[in-house]
Please model this.
Amino acid sequence: MIESQLHTRLEGALPKHSTSESKSRKKKEIIILEEALSLLAEKGYAKFSMRGVAATCGVSLRTVQYYFPTKKDLLLETVKYTLAHYYNEKIDLLFEKQKAKKPKDRLIIVIDYMMQDWKSP
Model:
């Protein structure tokens, strides 16, 4: 139940497109989101800017604003993207390793993992 609720909340966090033009768009969105995450972790919220993300990506500010009109939009999508990857890659691997079937056991695994993960940079 917890897993399905998390999955439902994170659905749509990753950009989804089907045409070749939109695949290119998806790649640009992912590059921007990954650079935004890197800058946010490095500089913190106070020094995080859309101009900084654009410069790091090697694109114009307008390009970043095309995909994410405001700083708030960029931050929100960065968090959603990060959580989606965190959930999809890390948690699924943990469940496979642990062979946890009960929701309670899965929750304990997630909490243990998060506690360990928070200790690392």
About this structure: The chain has a mean pLDDT of 79. The first helix runs from residue 2 to 10. Residues 48 and 82 are 16 Å apart (CA to CA).
